[in-house]
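Before a colleague's protein record goes any further, I have to sign it off. I want your independent view on whether this chain really folds as the C-alpha cells say. The record follows directly below this note.
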Amino acid sequence: MKIGILAVQGDFAAHAARLSELGAESVEVRTVADLEGCDGLILPGGESTTQLQFLKEEGLFEALKKFAVQGGVLFGTCAGAILLATEVNNPAQASLSLLDITVLRNAYGRQMASDVFFGSSKLTDAPLEMVFIRAPVIGRVGLGVEVLAEYAGKPVLVKQGNVMAATFHPELSQDTAVHRRFLDLVEASPKKSASVGERGLGMSGQETAVRSS
C-alpha cells in the first residue's frame, strides 16, 4: 500500500509518521508525477486558498479529480476537508467538489483555535480524540455522505464513497482510529485491487520470460 501526502503546507510529516506506525508506505506529493503508483492520498491542514492555488499551478487540481474517479482514496484534514467539499463559504472559494458537504471556513474561530476535545464516533466505542486548530465547520451534509464522528452536534468526520474528510487533525492525536479507517478504505478500493493485479501480471510475465530463455 502506497499513500501520497500533499506536501505543501501543514504537518504532512506527522501524517507520514502515523502511516509508518500503521505499516503503510508514504510519499510526498508535489507534482502530478508524484501521484504515480499511489493508492490513496492525504490532503493535510494549512491554508486552503494557498493550497488551492498550488494545485492549479502544478496541474494537480484536475489530476486529483481523475485520481478519485479511478478509485483512488482521498482523505482531507482541516484545510484538506475544505478542498474536497462541493461548497465552501465564509468566504466562498473554488474546490475539488468531490465530497457533498458545505464547509464554513474558520467558523470556530478563536473559540477553538487550538484545543483538544473528545466526541462520539462510529470508529471506536471509546470517545475519539480530536485536535482542533481554527477548524472549519461542516454546515451541510449530502444524502450520500456518512457521518463517522460528531462534536457539539456537528459532523467532524465524514465519508462518501472513496473520499473522507475531518475538520480536526487526527495526525496530532494519540488515537490511530481515523488513519486506520482511511487505510481500510484504501485496502478495499478498486484502484488498490487493480494495482495489485497489474503487479501480479508483471510478475507472471517475468516468470514466462525466464522459462522461455
Observations:
- Residues 196-213 have pLDDT under 50 and may be disordered.
- Helices lie at 12-21, 48-57, 60-69, 79-84, 177-188, 190-212.
